[in-house]
Amino acid sequence: MQTGLFISGRYMDCARGERFADVEPATGGELAQIASAGEEDMARAVVAARQAADYGPWPRMSAAERSRVLARMADGIQRRARELGMLEARDVGKPLSECVNHDVARAAKNLSFFAAAAETWTQEACFGDAKFLGAELRLVNLTARSPLGVGAIIIPWNSPLMLATWNLGPCLATGNACVLKPSELAPLTCIALGEIAGEAGLPDGVLNIVPGLPAAAAALVADPGVDAVAFTGGVATGRKVMTGASATVKRVSLELGGKSPNLVFTDADLRRAAAGVARSIFRSQGQSCVAGSRLLLERRVAGEFLDLLLAETRKLKIGDPLKDETDFGPLISAAHRERVDAFVKEAVAEGAEVLTGGRAPQHPAHGFYYLPTVLDRVKNSSRVRCEEIFGPVLTVERFEDEDQAVAAANIGRYGLAAYLWTSKLDRALRVAAKLKSGMVWINSFFLRDLRTPFGGARESGLGRQGGRYSLEFWTEPKLVCMTYEEQAGG
């Protein structure tokens, strides 16, 4: 398979003809040859988007007209659900069932949701009185919202289609053009969006898709033709995005990493909590920003809960991600598996106990598999406790009371998500208020209405996505102030 860049409504080669290999995680073999965008290609894509934003029909359409185009794109994704799910399962290594039933389905929903949200979003008006040049006047203040212009959307490899549409939905629905830069590790479903957009009637240049290596992303962020950057990825790269965007004072949205705690109290439904904790860390092989990678247990139930958790972990079916029965696939790359294993080995050298996993499996013998891992007796200072591993590794800690649990949960520099497992409503609300986290789930994992804010505190991000938060990010509020005199007799 060979792919091209998608610019100005058509697929094309990159300026210098460069390509890179896209490797299939389950086999370690080459899956595709990807056209690699360089700085010239990024500039060409920005020019195309700029032309569409400044002179094309898209921002001048009504919200209802744009909504119909995005609805057709959503339909196009749904029609290709199995095909796209298969492509993403091969490209990322996630189980096919998860790709089809969650990621692809959610991608279609993202577009249709934001199309409807933008269509029904009302502008604000304030009425009052004023004096001006000696006249008594009526005053109308309108808050109009215009599209920003050109957005740069840079996404990671773990859920590429879902994360691309999560940003594209509000960006396009509000009348912007954009340049989408997918990860070089898993670009295939994003590249397929170009064909889907064309079939849906999206005007040329509104969506441009340019996979490339990290240097190309830096050129995109710094391009003066870009008005805003939405970035999802690691903290270190997020800092570089902020720096690159600062030269032209671009608007920036950052959805970064996490080290999310699971707090399990004595009064919790322990069986349900064990299943929830296992899902929160081992879904997507732990390669998720909201993975519940720290388990905090009230000491009185620690032994019982760990038995239940290990039983849940043993239920996971590890194998070929293209088989419907598979629950747990490979990691994204050999390098990432080595990184995950290095964290585990370092913790073990410091005295941590491996309750399960801690190595690559014997079967499957090929690909970048790593067993679901639970580490107990981890030192407080250990990197495995404090740093985002982005893999299937869960650390275990114990606490005596609620205050100690909250203090332990709030350590470190991240603050994306947290999970509480308790049957007491007053405790749930009290602890949730004390956690330094942008999102808290109680007796559940990652269930969310798309109207609500998604984002993190501290080094887990900047800004919020979802509902009106996304629509506000992609638009420029403009005051329009008008005065008039009331005429006698109407």
Please sum up the structure shown:
The chain is an alpha/beta fold and 490 residues long. The protein has two domains: 2-256 and 456-479, Aldehyde Dehydrogenase, Chain A, domain 1 (3-Layer(aba) Sandwich), CATH 3.40.605.10; 261-442, Aldehyde Dehydrogenase, Chain A, domain 2 (3-Layer(aba) Sandwich). Helices cover 39% and strands 22% of the residues.
CATH class category of the largest domain: Alpha Beta
Mind telling me the C-alpha Rg? 24 Å
Q: What is the 3D shape?
A: globular
First-last Cα distance: 71 Å
Beta strand %: 15-25%
Q: Helical segment tally?
A: 15
Number of domains: 2
Tally of strands: 21
CATH architecture title of the largest domain:
3-Layer(aba) Sandwich
CATH fourth-tier homologous superfamily of the largest domain: Aldehyde Dehydrogenase, Chain A, domain 1
Main beta sheet: strand number and arrangement?
7 strands, mixed
CATH topology of the largest domain: Aldehyde Dehydrogenase, Chain A, domain 1
Biggest sheet: strands side by side, in what order? 15-16-17-14-13-18-19
The secondary structure category is alpha/beta
Provide structural commentary.
There is one protein chain. With 490 residues, the chain is an alpha/beta fold. It has two domains: 279 residues, Aldehyde Dehydrogenase, Chain A, domain 1; 182 residues, Aldehyde Dehydrogenase, Chain A, domain 2 (3-Layer(aba) Sandwich), CATH 3.40.309. The chain is 39% helix and 22% strand. It is built from 15 helices and 21 strands. Strands 15-16-17-14-13-18-19 form a seven-stranded mixed beta sheet, with helices on both faces. β11, α8 and β12 form a beta-alpha-beta unit. α2 crosses α6 and α3 crosses α4. The radius of gyration is 24 Å and the shape is globular. The model has no long low-confidence stretch (mean pLDDT 96).
